[in-house]
Specification:
- This protein is of the alpha/beta class.
- It folds into 2 domains: 96 residues, Alpha Horseshoe (Serine Threonine Protein Phosphatase 5, Tetratricopeptide repeat); 228 residues, Spore Coat Polysaccharide Biosynthesis Protein SpsA, Chain A.
- Helices cover 40% and strands 14% of the residues.
- It has an 8-stranded mixed beta sheet, sandwiched between helices. It has a 3-stranded mixed beta sheet with strand order 6-11-10.
- Strand 2, helix 5 and strand 3 form a beta-alpha-beta unit.
- Helix 3 runs antiparallel to helix 4 and helix 8 crosses helix 9.
- It is globular and about 65 Å long.
């Protein structure tokens, strides 16, 4: 069995046992379940094999990456930093090797472009994306919020200068914009920038208002009144994934709730992200949520499948799709695709 196959088998074993016991496969409901509960014996073998392999093959970067993930899962964050530094010495241009868990991410934070517009002053839903994504996905999301919660407060942050019209949405809207072209001209991939910069802007919005704020992926939909999410106990609410190996897959960025009391945590998230903006990687937003949690340990509550539905045929109040499924929304017959088409036109 290859290392990748072994990693996959660990995750599959954990998710299989969760399904047998009636637990949600894609959601941790209590941090006592994180990261593994049922595949513990398999995971221990993985951790031991990873460290042995790394010692036997000191010039092969693969064992050092596996050793890093194993130590993170064991909670040995100092050891994880030592392992990833060895990985970095062998792959100095690989952005993943700049991840840190006990230490501060190396490098200076990159300044983001200035923002124009008005931040929300009280509770609000928050989406951040580029104008094209806003047209294709964000507008259906906004229409779905308006259908279930007319007049709800929503903040839209647009990363670009060609913002589509947001008139007639029957929402209490605030809007900010930025021109990301200076940072993109440095060679930063636009998709990499948009997915992570939204968390920096979410932090800025939280800094300027009283909150709470609830950020959802712009390609989500709403299936019921989402305003009760504002009143969830705790300072931070996230979707945490069960049985994931890599540290950019532990915490999901699809739905995030934060209060003003959680600002130190989100400031740490934003700082981590900004330190990567000369060479970002896909999943930076989710790694930052996890790495900042290790240090700040905010008062965390968790979204379950009732609020964050991640299956195309099983909606939550917020319903998400991902990957290749997004490309087929115009023709697919999944329940999510049908609902998307319903909100695709005014």
């Amino acid at each position: 069995m290859t290392p990748d196959e072994f990693l996959h088998s660990i995750s599959e074993a954990e998710r299989g046992e969760r399904a047998k016991r009636g637990l949600p496969v894609h959601h941790v409901l209590d941090m006592a379940e994180f990261p593994f509960v049922f595949a513990t014996s398999t995971f221990k073998r993985f951790a031991a094999a990873a460290m042995q392999w790394a010692n036997q093959e000191p010039d092969d970067p693969g064992p050092h990456s596996i050793n890093t993930w194993a130590r993170v899962l064991m909670g040995d964050y100092v050891g994880a930093d030592k392992a990833i530094k060895r990985f970095q010495a062998l792959r100095p241009t690989e952005p993943l090797t700049r991840m840190r868990f006990a230490e501060t991410v190396p490098g200076e934070p990159v300044a983001l472009p200035p923002v124009a517009g008005a931040w929300p002053v009280g509770p609000a839903f928050f989406i951040g994306c580029d104008p094209l994504y806003l047209r294709q996905y964000g507008l259906p999301l906004l229409r779905s919020i308006a259908a279930h919660a007319p007049g709800a407060p929503v903040h839209v942050h647009v990363m670009g200068q060609d913002c589509p019209s947001l008139n007639g949405l029957h929402l209490q809207l605030t809007v900010t914009t930025e021109d990301p072209s200076p940072i993109l001209r440095r060679g930063v991939d636009a998709k990499m920038y948009y997915h992570a910069a939204r968390l920096v802007r979410f932090t800025e919005a939280l800094r300027h208002g009283s909150g709470p704020l609830v950020m959802a992926d712009a390609d989500a939909l709403v299936t019921a009144d989402p305003r009760p999410v504002f009143s969830i106990p705790g300072d931070v609410t996230l979707r945490v994934r069960a049985g994931r190996i890599e540290p950019w897959h532990h915490f999901s960025a699809c739905l995030i709730r934060g209060t003003s009391a959680a600002l130190p945590y989100f400031e740490s998230v934003a700082d981590i992200i900004r330190r990567f903006f000369n060479n970002p990687f896909w999943g930076l937003d989710q790694y930052a949520l996890f790495a900042a949690y290790i240090r700040a340990k905010p008062n965390l509550t968790l979204f379950g499948p009732d609020l964050a539905g991640v299956l195309d045929d099983a909606p939550g109040v917020f319903w998400f799709t991902a990957g290749a499924a997004k490309k087929d929304l115009a023709s697919s017959e999944t329940p999510f695709a049908k609902l998307y088409r319903r909100y695709s036109t005014p």
